[in-house]
Design brief:
single chain, alpha+beta, DNA Methylphosphotriester Repair Domain, 4 helices, 4 strands, 37% helix
Length: 86
């Protein structure tokens, strides 16, 4: 099985309700599990991101940043600022 096939299978196994709950609670413990992507802004971030909370209907979830980027999303600037040393 190719890497992309494995990633697609994993993505289909995400529980959207559980992912949304983690995002809504800004749960840091879920950061390694998935990314949340906002359809209206075309950005993605991990749970716990300090960015403004999106509307639920505008969010989709991916198991990795790579899949989010392949779908046309870019990393949120708030997340970029947190990764960049001062």
């Amino acid at each position: 099985m190719t890497t992309s096939a494995v990633l697609e299978r994993e993505a289909s196994q995400l529980d959207d309700d559980a992912c949304w709950q983690a995002v809504a609670e800004r749960r840091q413990s879920a950061r390694a599990l998935f990314v949340a992507a906002v359809k209206t802004t075309r950005i993605y971030c991990r749970p716990g991101c300090p960015a403004r909370m999106p509307k639920r209907e505008n969010v989709e979830f991916f198991v990795s940043p790579r899949l989010a980027e392949a779908a046309g999303y870019a990393l949120a600037s708030a997340a970029t600022a947190r990764r960049t040393p001062a």
